[in-house]
Each structure stands twice: as C-alpha cells, then as structure tokens.
Fold:
Amino acid sequence: MYVYIFNRLVGAAVTVFLVLTLVFFLVRLSGDPVALMADPYFDEDDIQALREDLGLDGTVAEQYLVFLGNVVRGDFGNSIRFREPALNLYLDRMPATLKLMVFGVFFAIGLGIPIGVIAGVSPGSRIDGVARTGALLGQAVPSFWLGIMLILLFAVQLGWLPTSGEHGLKSMILPGITLGSFSIAAMTRLTRSTVLDIWDTEYVRLLMVKGLPRRLVIWKHVVKNAALPVMTLASLQMIAFLSGSVIVEQIFAWPGVGRVAVEAVFSRDFPLIQTVVVINTVLLVLMNLAVDLAYVAIDPRIRFTAAR
Amino acid sequence: MITDQARANVPAARLMGALGVFRMVPEGLRGVPRIPFAIFVLFVAVAVVGPYITPQDPFQQSLQTRLAPPAWAGGSTDNLLGTDSLGRDVLSRLMKGARIALAIGVTTAIAAGILGAALGMIAGFSGGAIDYLLMRLTDGMIAMPFLVVALAIAVVLPPSIKTLVAILIFFGWAGYARIIRSTVLQLREAEFIQLAKVAGCSSRRILWRHISPNVTNTFVVLFTLQLATVIIAEASLSFLGMGVPPPEPSWGLMLSDGRRFVDTAWWISVFPGVAITLVVLSVNMLGDWLRVRLDPKFRQV
Amino acid sequence: MDDRGYWTRRRITRRVALRSAGFGAAGLAGAALFGCGGDDEEQAPAAPATTAQPAGTAAAGGTAAAVAPGARPSASSGHVDIAQSSLDTQPGDPHLGTSGIQEPIRYATNTSLFTLTVEGERVIAVADSIEAAEDFLSYVVKVREGLTFTNGDPITGEDVKFSMDRVAAMGSGKASWTRKFSSHELIDPMTVKVVQTQVEPTAFLSVRGLYTVPKNYTEGLNDGPWAETKFGEAPIGVGPYRLTENRIGVLETFEAHDGYLLGAPFVKTITVHVVPELTTKIAQLQTGEVDIVQGLLADQMDQVTSISGGKIVSSFGAGSSELTYFDIMKPDSPFNDVRVRKALAHAVNRQEIIDTLYRGQAILQNSLHVKFPATTGYDEVLAKNEPFPYDPQTAKQLLDAAGYGAGFQTQITTYDTSTSPGTPQMMEAVSNYLSQVGVISPVRFMEAGQYVGQFREKTLTGMGPISFGGLADDFAVVYETHFLGNTGPEAAAPFSYDDWQEGDDLWRAITKETDVEKREQMSKDLLRMLSRDRVPNLTLVAPHALLGLGPRVADFPRPPAQPYLSHLEHIRLEDGA
Structure:
C-alpha cells in the first residue's frame, strides 16, 4: 500500500518536472520582455542592467538550471511586471478563483445528478433525450457568450444580481454558473450510467420487492455508488476550470488567477506564467492522486488492476 | 488459386479490413439520433459546398451598409442575415465559417490521432523507462491548463490557422496516446496474440490485424469529440484575440467580434452563436451514440 | 492672443486664464478663444478654496450644466464609481509609472511643475515661475509659496530638488532625464536650478511631468534614500486626490484633497474599477453599478444614451492614428518612392471612415500630431486642409508614374488595445481601400506587446499603425521622438523608420534656435515639409476619446487630445445624487 503511494508520488513529481521544463522553454520562445519594458532612450548598458536585475541574462540553459534550483526551494522568482514574488501574487488571487471553482463544481453536481437520475430511470425515452440534450448545452455554448447573456438577463434586465466584481455571495452566482455549466454534461452522463448500472442489480430488485418506494431506492443507491465516480469527475473537471476561469474572470471582472495568467502571458511575464501553470498542474496531479487513493481505500479490488 | 488480379486487390481489401470498415458499414446507421445527424450532415454539406455558393463575397466590405439588419427585420434581401461592422454579409461569412470549422476539426483530429497513436504504440511496445516517461508526459499534458498555455504559445507564433491547428494538435495527442497504449497493453497479454506469435506471425502483422480494428472504434469516438472541442476552443481563443485571425470568418471570431453589438446589432453574434451551439451539440450527441454503439465499455467515460 | 509660444519664452509665470460661462468640452474651439493675461507679469492667482460658487449653481444665464469652469466648490462631497478596462500594474509611485493607462493614479494624486487644465491649457502649478538662462543651458524653478502636500507638509524647493534627484536615480524615465539634465542645485529654500547637458530652449517640455514628492515623508519611511518600495504603498502627492486604497487588478480609491492648489474637487471619493470587458462595463452603467465608463467605441454610444440620463462626453481628437511605412528606407521597396506614399494617402477615404466606423466622432488628421493651436508649429492651413484628399484616380496615376500601375503586395500588421479599440477595424477598412488601387495588403494581427517590441527593434515590414495620445507641446519634441533619423549624432527616434537628412538638419536648427518667432516659423516649415513632401506615414483620423456618463453625473469635462482618465477633480454630480 505504501509502496503504491510512494510510486504514485514519484510519478507525480516526474510529471510536474516535465511540465515545468516544457513551460519554461515554451514561454521563453516569445522573445525578450526587456524590450517591452525599456524606456525608449535606454542604451545597451541600461538594457543589460535591467536584464541582470530581472535574472534574464545568461543563456536559456543557464537560466533553466538556476530556475530549477530555486523552484526546489520554493522560490518561483519575481514577477517581471510587478517586481514581487510570483508565488505571492498567485496565492493572493487563488482564493477568489477557488471560490468560483467550488461554486461551479457544486452547481454542476447540483444540476447534473438530478438530470442524470431523471435520464437514467427512463432510458431511451423522450425525457432521457431532452435531459441529456439540456445537459450538453452547457458544453455547446461558448462560455464567454453564456456569461454575457447571463449578465444581460439577470443583472441588466431583471436586476436580481450584480453584473460583476467580487462582492460576496450574490456576485459569485453568475460567474459560478458560467464556470460550472461546462461540467454538467459529464456529471449527467456519469450519473445516468451509474443509475443504469445499479438498476438491474439483485440488491435493488430485492429492495423493490420488499416494497420500498422506487424513488427512495434509486436515490440512496445513486448517492452511494456515484460518490466516487463523481469525485473523480469533479477532480478531472477542475482541469477545465482554470481554462474556464480565464474567460469567466475576464467577463465578470473577477480578481482571480485566470486574469493574472492572461495579463502575464500578454506581458511576457515568464515567472508568473510559469508559476500559474506549474502550481495548477501540481494541484491537479495531487488531486488525482488523492482521488485514486480514495478509490483504493474504499474498493480494494481496484488496487492493482488500474491500468495507469 | 490466386490470380494476379486477386493479388492486386488483396492489399486494399486488407487495409479496409484492418481499419474495421467492414465491421461498421453493414451495421449501418440504425438508431442514430436523427436531428443531430441531420444537423451534422447539413454542416458538412455547407462546409464542403457552401463557399462556392455564397450570395456575396465573405470579405467584401461595404462601410455605407454596415450593421444592416436581416432581411426580415428591416434590411435588404442582398444580406439575408444582415451585415457586420464592416458591412460584410453575415450569411456568406457563416457559410465560409463552416468550412473553417470543419477543416480545423478534421485536420486536428487526424494529425493528433496519428501523433498520439504513434507515441502510444511506442509506449505500449517499449515498456520500461520510455513508457514511464511518455505516460508521465501525457499526464502532464492533460493536467496543463489549456487556455493559458495555448495563449502563451499563440502569442509567440504568427497568427494563422496553421498556428491554431498546431496548438490544438499539441494539446490533442495525449488522449489518443493513452488509449492506444492501454489497448496495446491489453492485447499484448491477450491469448490470441500469444497464439498468433506461436504460430509464427510477425509482430507487424499482429498489429495490423488485431489491434487496428479495436483502435478504430476509439478513434472514431475521439474524432467526433475533438471536432466539438476544437470549435469551442477556437471560440475561446478568439475571445482572447488569439484565434483564427481576421478577416477569415471563423464562427468563434464572428461571435467574439459581435458581442459588443448584442444590444444593437444582435444578428452579428446570434447566428454564429446558434451555429456553434447546434453543431457542437449535434456532434456531441452523435459521439455519445457512437460510444454506446461501438464499445459499451465507454459508457462510463 | 494665443497660447502658442508660451513655452518658448524664457520666463514663464503663473497667470490667470480667463474663462467664459458655457464653455463646453470642445477644447479646440476653446483654446482659440482664450484671452491672455500678460505673459511676463505677475498675476493674482485664481483663489482656489475660497471661491464662493457651490457646485451646481447656474452661471449667469446658463443652465446647471454650464457652471463657470473656474468655479470650485468650497468642499467636496459624494462618491463616484468609474469602470476602466485596465490600470496596468497600478504603481502608486508616480516616478515609476510607464504607461498612460495608469494615468488615473498619476493625474489624480500628483501635479507637476506645470499641468494641463481641463480646457486644454497649460498652466503653471507647483512652480511659481520657470525661467531659462540666457544661454539656455540651465533653467531656474521657483516654487510657489503656501502650497502643501496632501499630508499637510509644506512644499519647498528641497522637495522639488529631491524629486528630481529621485527621478534621476530610480525613475522609469531616468534615462531620458539624465540625458538632458546633469544636475539640480538648491539656490535658496524655494528655488532650484537645473543644469542642462546641451542648449535646448524647451528642455523641460520634453520631460514634462516631474511629480513632486515630499522629502521628509519619503525619507521617513526608512526604505533607503528613495523609499522605492514603500512610497508606492502609501504615496503622498500634491494633487486633487489622495490614494487611499490600491488593490491591484481590482480597484483604486481616491479621497479628495480640498486644499488642492487649483481648487477643491467636486466629488469627495472616487473608485476606479478594473473591468476588462466592454460589454460588462456598459452593463454596469445600465444597472447603475458605475457612473462613468471609459474606452467606449462610437458604436456603443447608443447604448449609453438609451439609458435615462445617460450621456457621452468626449476628448476631442484624442487618438492619433497613422500607418508607418516600415520599408521607407529600403531601396527596392515601393514605399521608398514618395509618389507611392502620396498615392496611398489619396487612396483612403478618411471621411467615409469617420462617418461610418466612427459615427462622426473623429477628425481628419491632416498635420501629423499637431492638431491644436496650442502646439508650437501649428499651422491653420495645414490643419484645416487634407494634404491628400480622397482621389483614387490620382492615386492610380501616381502609382503608374512610379512604375506600380499593376499594384503590388504588402501587408498591414496591427494590434488591439483598450485605448485605441477601433484600430483593427480601421486597418481592415484601409486595407480595403488600398486594394481598390491595386495594393494588396492583408491585415496581419499581432499581440500588442509583440508588436511594440518588434516595432522598436525595427523588424517589421510593410505598414503598421502607431498612435500617439496627448497634446503635443512643441513640434520639435514630437519630431525628436517620432521622426528623427538614424544618421545623426543624437539618439535616433525610437519610433522612426525614416532617415531624412533635410528634416533632421532643420530639426537640429530648431532645437538651437532661441528666437521665438523664428522657431515658430521653422517648426511650421518642418511640419509642412514632413506632411506634404516627405510623407513618412499614412495619416488617418484622430478619433475622439469617448466616455459614458450615467444619470448621477452632471458633467465630466474633458481636455482635448486626452485619451486617458485625467482631471477627476472636474467630475460633477447632479443635485441630489
């Protein structure tokens, strides 16, 4: 068991290392940020001084080694634009994005599971088709469009909710919905197939023979059996959430990591871009690991047959 | 007795057999969800034929008639769906956009598929360190935030459709690689492979005859999903200014450009928006259906 | 009498600018109307805090909206929310600012030695007088008596000298500052002498915007001699507002400083919110979440005016767009031939662009950068007449004469930012016009940062836009940054791809010229030669910078040629708002 965990941790570390390297070199393809920042009247000496100041002198290979050394100690470097530690900037903005992500996940689960159950209890029927189509809509409408439409309807026309910005619970609703709608389809699909799976089991039949109302049986079992798959799915969907948050935060003026990432890309702020991508990857890899371990803990049968 | 002619036909027949085509076609499209299929066929038809029959030149500007409404809402019949902010015909651009969407989707799917398959097979057959590293790499690729890294790459390269496709392929191969690899692993163990080996069949032959058909199903499903993903990804990148560059009328760009006219010239964004939604919805539903048809194992995914 | 030449006089002092009731936001007309005070005499200052007219009182015969601009309230009140696309890195430190987008902080919380009034007139502010030495190798700044910083500290010559030292040591503009000025000396407690490195009568114009920071306070922060990090966190300045909250990427909040030297602001607290998306900004205006919205396009005007009480204000001719010919010096390029350059200028229907894409909210840009009478070198004939009217026939003839009757292939590279949002569309329109005379120029999009970088490195080919905001003080200064070629001894202009001996020689003569009349005439000549004969750029249009106001705001007058959010102290709320 512990060997398994250890192996997985090592694997996670390797993954993160590969991503780190990939991003480091990719980002530096974009040329020289110093050129963007320099006063037009700077001469070569000034520019070189600025480069040294920012740690951008030396060959790329040299920079890479220095970077690796620093990362191991938790130093992700200073943001070129803000002249502050990139990690701090990221951590400052992370809670805001986290709030949206959690809201989004709950929204997706809150909508996806009921729809999935409705679809699953009468598979092949029109209700099933409509339910699944509805769930798929969340993936078929580009999120910036959905966000704008939601603002126009609920904030401008109806005046129920604020248009944007982070001011407490009410302002989380529209961006949270926009972020989460992408995942409804996956939740629905999963729930539906879980329902279909358990439908025919002896145990369920037994319960129904005993006279328990059908609905109760379904719900109890769905909740129990779906817990793990849903967790897996939620963690997988978190991957989409950072990409999604880039757009949602732009539309809703939400001060989170997504916006920081976009600004960093456009201003060639290498350390900040690297930090955002790497930390996100680390979080996701760890999350996957946690979910996998949970599976293993709960259902020992899966332990070593998982084709990883 | 094998005649020369028969011998000539054998490779083609073998290829088709290997690709599992014969398995699929006779089963036909029985039970396919009809509306999504119709929309999909319409989409492909417009993509293929559309650009030749557009009512206007999709790039023709006409500043004096910019922001004209659709024909039934006060506009002229010259522009059935109205004009955009440079006076270009929305309908013509919509039709050209279909081709752009399909072209990007198909190219990406094929290229990513080939790349992914190659790497997946290498991983599956090599085992050891190469397999390990490649799998950790795919883990990383899947965990990387698409939009941020795609943007970082897009900002560097000259904006063009080719750049976009390259980025999509970069992010797309990992899914294929994983599936191929696990298929390879499973089949390596499977009995009939062992038997075939014992009987003296070469590795390459085993590959073609036994692995390919199974893989094809997976690929078809992944293809359809990729088309949907690509269209949405392009829309997101256009929103950030890094999608298909103007004046090419990609749907994502039309939607993004038109969003500031939502109150005043709604037709500029609503039509491409509806097109995107319908096509992506249909493709996803077809994908779902295919999944169930071709391999019930995928129901859980 | 007009404002031109004010800055080329040797001695500049405070003076009263006469205002008339009913003055609107059309700074161009206003600037021409200006009465003059005697330039070289001492004038009584416009008494700031004691002006009796409270906000909203009608001027004689006018309506509430036409309060005499000179009137200031006795105390500020009320709150306003503003939405702007970006505030960049929001540096609290005025010496570290680099881009115009950050203006709200800088203009609101700081005032320089001289400043721009909302009518577009330059008026001396923190300084009492600025006088150039006879040999134009130094100038003396006398600091105005009785001024205080927003924390109550009095402003003295020491603070001005300290601020200059600070800029030279760590400011973002230190390279250009130290190129022009070698030292700053305190002559007496209220007087600073600045020694120049070369004869240049308008040296202090090219580095305008020295922001004064308090010496005692800054040193008291115990963060090195210049408080590089700590000052920006709690800046103290001499502007109409004080920065009270600065959340990067989210908002900035300001509070009024009623003792401001030019009069108390109307609004007591202002919050500028960062809202990247245009549709969201307008939605905010529609729901009343914000009162003012920046960065509107002409197409969005209807959405604002359809709000009950919504209005548009504009800064006249704030944008400035032209296409640079990157290949102008390459012998085998079509752009090397002036006939081709003139032909392309004839090929674009600028008026149609103004009428359609900008809905009339732009002016023709006839003379490069010198759109207003206030700039030295302004020539009315040049400004009012299109040098190359729309005439595709003539364009084709010229192309023919140059040997390009069959047209040629090139490209337009462009980008998109929130301060010049109409640019990409305009580029597409221009490309269309050019194709009608046979010049095929597909528009290639590049991300803004990439574009600026390559522009500076001179690696672009074909054509590309460059836009310049702000009111140019002096054409010679403009020439130095935008047109100066590469073969002279000075630093070549960072934005110039051209290398025009004749123009550069004339420019050198102008910078050394100390006679005001001659200088003016030479500037006009250079401008004429540049616009009509050399034509290094394809000038297009100068769009107005549009702002949307919600029902709570009575007025927000804009100076001309100002694309950024300045003069917040002039925002006025409706009665009862």
User: Anything to note?
Assistant: Confidence is low (pLDDT under 50) at residues 303-308 of chain A.
